[in-house]
Amino acid sequence: FRGNMSSGSRTWAFRMLSAAAAVGWASAAAVPPKAPHSTLYGLQLEHNGPAEPGLVSINPLNGNVSEIGGPRTELSGTGDLAVIDAKRKVFYYLGDTTKGTTLVGLSLVDGSEVCSAVVPLREIGFVGIGQSLDIDTVNDRFVLSGIQNGKNNSVTHTVLEGPIVDAAGSPKCGPIKLVAEFGLATYAPMIHGSTLDSTGQRLFVNLAPTQTTTAIGVVDLVKKDLKVVVPESAATPLYGMSWDPKHQRVVGLSPSQPQFSVVTFDPARSKFNAVPVGAVGELGGNMGTVHAFDPNTRVLYAVVETQPGVATLGQVDVDSAVLLRAPTLNFEAGLKLLNALQIVL
């Protein structure tokens, strides 16, 4: 899943519901479920040709997916390309229009467009490939990253930022400007996960040092330099990343075999740790990049297929690596595919 992506049409969004080997399903009924702390929002694929997304809310108790507004004309990719500004109740995603990579803000109340802006990021073949989007809650700004093709199959990694509010405190989409550029990777990561430590001002991004290996780059947003690149384990790669402020670490799920695992990365020690969740199904959502983490309840949400064609909202306790519940996702309409998942704390 690494390497150089051939150029492709902007109107074709890369999507992959699941990408790990299927394993057996084990009931988690004996485990007392934790009460959901917050509301989940996401994007669902409304229809293809063109691939248009729509804003939805997701009930973590019963898996019901409810539409908020209608389809959007700005195309979307699958993965770490959406964030929520909880203060102003705006859902942002990084999509694509005929003008190029486009940042879109939607009201969580009615799905209406709050703002949109073209950002200076190129695509590597498909919508969202080699791009990421995070929100710095300390400084009220967007932090984006992207990769640009260079010579001899090399790529350059760029970091961008821009304000999420104007002088009056109203939501806005930038302007987004380049703030740093690094020669971090040799190849373009197809799955370009990221997460942000707003307090420590560190951006964690998925990189590809070679065509067959992955790594996590840690960017110091104050000094605007790369602090470290740590190779990931080939057995338990970490694509969908979330920052865990309690333990000062990155957490996520890995499509390891024969069962997926909770994976953590401790940046202070540059150490990875993987704990199998158990035989709970097939990790979907583009290798676990369609995910959300609640640091208060310690629950990580992700798409899990309990059987072929049956998508559920898997809810994993990251401290015990136990599946708490996995209600079937019940879509009102659309193509029954989640492109993004975010949480309001």
Description of the structure:
- The chain is mainly β.
- It is 1% helix and 48% strand.
- The chain has one helix and 27 strands.
- It has one helix at residues 285-288, and strands at residues 39-47, 52-58, 64-71, 75-76, 82-85, 90-97, 100-107, 113-118, 131-136, 141-149, 155-163, 177-185, 194-197, 202-207, 215-220, 225-231, 242-244, 249-254, 261-266, 271-276, 282-283, 291-294, 299-307, 310-317, 322-325, 330-331, 338-344.
- The strands form six sheets. A five-stranded mixed sheet has the order 26-3-2-1-27, with no helix packed on it.
- Strand 6 (90-97) and strand 7 form a beta hairpin.
- It is globular.
- Residues 1-33 have low confidence and may be disordered.
